[in-house]
Specification:
The complex is a heterodimer. By secondary structure, chain A is α/β, with parallel strands linked by helices. Chain A has 2 domains: about 190 residues, 3-Layer(aba) Sandwich (D-Maltodextrin-Binding Protein, domain 2), CATH 3.40.190; about 140 residues, Periplasmic binding protein-like II (D-Maltodextrin-Binding Protein, domain 2). Chain A is built from 15 helices and 10 strands. In chain A, strands 1, 2, 3, 4, 5, 6, 7, 8, 9 and 10 form a 10-stranded mixed sheet that branches. Chain A is globular. By secondary structure, chain B is an all-alpha fold. The N terminus of chain B is likely disordered. In chain B, about 75% of the residues lie in helices and about 0% in strands. The relative contact order of chain B is 0.12. Classes of the chains: A alpha/beta, B mainly alpha. Chains A and B meet through helix 3, helix 8 and helix 15 of A and helix 4, helix 6 and helix 12 of B.
Amino acid sequence: MTRTRLTRRNLLIAGSAVLATPYLSSRPARAAGQVVIRNPGGAWSDTQKKYIYEPFTTETGIEVVIVPTTLTKMLAMVKSGNNELDIADAGYDGLVELDKAKALAPIDYAGWKYTNPDDIPEEYKTANTAGMALYATVLGYNKDTFANNSQPKGWAEFWDAKKFPGARTLQDMAAGTPNLEFALIADGVPMDKVYPIDIDRAFKSMSRIKPYIKKFWDTGALSAQMLADRDIVLGSIWNGRLQAIADKGAPVAIDWTQHMLSIQAYGIFNGAKNLKNAQLYVDYAMQAKAQVGMPRELNYGPTNIKAFDMLTAAQKANLPGSPENMKRCFIQDVNWWGNNRAKVNATWSKWILT
Amino acid sequence: MNGGSAALRTLSPAAAAAPPDRTLLLLLPAMAMLVLMFFVPMVLFFVRTFIEFQGGRAEFIALARDLLFSQPYLTALATTNWIALTVTLAVLLVGYPIAYYLTTATGPSGSIVVLAIVLPYFTSIIVRTFSWMVLLGEHGLVNDTLRAIGVISEPLPLMYNRLGVLIGMSYVLLPYMVLTLYAAMRSIDPLLLRAAEGLGASGFYTFRRVYFPLSLHGVLSGALIVYILSIGYFITPALMGGQHDIMIAMLIDRELEVAVDWPAAALMSLSLLAVTLALYAIYYRVTDVRRLIGAR
């Protein structure tokens, strides 16, 4: 018998060929391979696609695959030796955890050809992480309640519930870092002396404002929702979140006094399957024209100083990390948090119940 | 469901002499999925966590004791059970009349009620929770309406407190109770009620002595399902609760995502699982699963 029998095995092979055919024919880019990136998702992901992923694929032929996942899942993948990711696009505080777990490889700054490493200030890069965007935790307020610039300016005034009455919100432990820094500043600690945080003193200060906290927020969406619904009139909030509801017409604004600057960064995984592509991607993504999408669309600051040249004065005024705003902020010390988070978490769990 | 009733039919005495029941094989895909996607990962998680634990057995026991007898854990445990109990009672009170109505309804009105109960399930729970926040906030629809018609002068605190959690959870869990009760009530023979009536029993007496006892296994099943689902709740209390409304699942999440303390998270999960399994054992004993799916 010469006729091929339709065995199950043949059927499987035939099936795979059929499935694979369109994949191969429609994607000549496959030859250059791919790079797999963890991305936090949402508006962040949309903007990255438009300004970085798609131009990068056009330029290099390398396909960018997005995987939205949490820090814990990344740690689990690393520990199980089953890591599908090449790059993590994550908060610097999360990357510090991955770095502690020896999961990150050095960034090849010397090999960069798209970006001049000197355009990225030293405080935004480490051997294993490259900061690519800046966001700020700011004092957000309701413009109707505090009209004509009558809002509290800075955290000492935020803590003064007699002079500035109204329900408030602050960051919950569940969001990663409660606002102990602001509590210390409210208690009289200068901005540049906040770290190392005096945990006891910070919680004592937190206890004073606690009766006026309607709810601690654990996601950016919640803080924005409470402010937009006027359930609170004052709160700590990420600047991009506040801007998003302000652009939609909510009567809210930012007071930039004593804000905290945080870094979103890239880390490349040790043993990444597409290591070369990953290094090339990070190089590409750090250049000014790739970074400029975040400030334009989401009000996140660039880390490449050249990107500021591509922005208008009005855009710069509302950006974390702009020369003007750098004078009234401090940079979050994620290493302190990395070493003390478990302890603060335990203290928080008891404190919140009192 | 069809496979289930077919299997049950062959188990009836009349079919006792029939060959081994092959319809049970229909359950294989479901069993495989349960084992592969639930049981195996869970066991692996616990085993790996405990293997990776740095330190000896004494240290581990000390950690477990410190954790499970700590004030935050015990408070969260009490909060969790209190909320679960209240939610269970609330959905029972609201769900029982609805389920009864459904058994008597004929024509489109019954379908509309069923649709109203089931339809919200096509929306994500996060979206639905945020909708509650729009309704119940200080300047939400409820408070604004009550103020406009002069019922209240100050807004009622409906959100970001225990009441908010109870409202949100009851809403999400109500269908489990209604559908369970409905299945149980549908199998009550209406002739029994007519017989009671014919013997001169009042409506309330008939309900108390005939109808309610017959629906009791549905009440217990529904209550246990809602309770078991409640104690693992996370999103609703996190979004709608206040400072003190911390449930166990929220503590577990914090240990995993924030403190990155996996042994602690595993221990808490294990304790929650133990409670759930214990409740499930009760559930299994007091209810006849076959009656739930409408078989007689």
